[in-house]
Amino acid sequence: MDLLLYIIVRSVVALLQALPISWVARLGRVGGAVAYWIDGRHRRVALRNLAMCFGNEESPDTIRNLAQENFRRVGESYATAIKTAVMTWDELRPHVEVSGAESLLPRDGEPNTQGRIVAIGHFGNFELYARLARFAPMYTPATTYRGLRQESLNELMQSMRERSGCLFFERRSEGPALRLAIRRKRLLLGLLADQHEGRGGLRLPFFGHECSTSAAPAVFARRYDCPLHIAICYRIGLARWRIEVSSEIPTREDGHDRTSEDIMNDVNRAFEVAVRRDPANWFWVHNRWKIKKRPQ
């Protein structure tokens, strides 16, 4: 069964990478539209999340339309991520804009090994974050990922991702390697911070509702004395995106370290602004607000 799944996925990948990116985007949107109707579990999650955040502001019809467009966007993002993974920067240039990248450049007197931490989320074609180092070539781009259960599919995914020159560290097994790299290299380290973090996460508000939030961007920024930024990938048209990089998020105040809670509250608020700017652009199919079970 695993071999059959690998053959199917590899064939789909080969097809998408052979087509023009605009065709890939349209196919992805069609696939997302179909998924809305056949994937009841994720449809219910998206509708519940949207109603929780916008139910007091928007009508049920608007919520449903947002969910449908969100599925189309998710389909477009996944399909185009497969295509953009094998595109050169010259090929990508007409499709990607970047603003604020100058804030990533080193400051005067900064150590040669000091990197940058970038809090990122599932906005637009989020695989494009790996291309940010194009605008700050003194850094080595890096990020973490969670490996797939099927080894062959995981290898296929990583072989596509690594063509960007980005270093990838498996969250559960390669923590020591990441810590060594951040001490020795000038990394531009992107850390996803918009997913449910489980029991170990910080309990912080997002859209007025408490959720488990990863402290990783704050922890890494303070521990390794790295400036912290936020990057958002906006879809600005069919197969067109703009990545916006924020100025530094303060990690110290009045000569003292800020708490992880305060720093990640800033990140959550920035993510909320980005979601409100284009609600269909975020990953609503993820169960961000899992209910905390009460002890028996």
Could you walk me through the main structural features you see in this protein, from its secondary elements to its overall organization?
The protein has 296 residues and is an alpha/beta fold. The chain has one domain (2-281). It is built from nine helices and eleven strands. The protein has helices at 2-18, 21-38, 40-54, 60-84, 89-92, 151-161, 175-184, 216-223, 260-277, and strands at 96-99, 116-120, 140-145, 167-170, 187-192, 202-206, 209-213, 228-237, 240-245, 252-253, 256-257. The protein has a seven-stranded mixed beta sheet with strand order 1-9-8-2-5-3-4, covered by helices on one side. The protein has a two-stranded antiparallel ribbon with strand order 6-7. Helix 1 (2-18) packs across helix 4 (60-84), helix 2 (21-38) packs across helix 4 (60-84) and helix 3 crosses helix 4. The longest helix is centred in the first third of the chain and has 25 residues, at 60-84.
Mean pLDDT: 91
Approximate shape: globular
The total domain count is: 1
What topology, given as strand order, has the largest sheet? 1-9-8-2-5-3-4
Q: Describe the main β-sheet briefly.
A: 7 strands, mixed
Amount of helix: 40-55%
**In percent, how much strand structure appears in the residues?**
15-25%
Structural class: alpha/beta
Report the C-alpha radius of gyration, rounded.
19 Å
Stretches with pLDDT under 50, minimum 5 residues: none
Number of helices: 9
Give the strand tally. 11
User: In angstroms, what separates the terminal alpha carbons?
Assistant: 40 Å
Spell out the helices and strands N to C.
HHHHHEEEHEHEEEHEEEEH
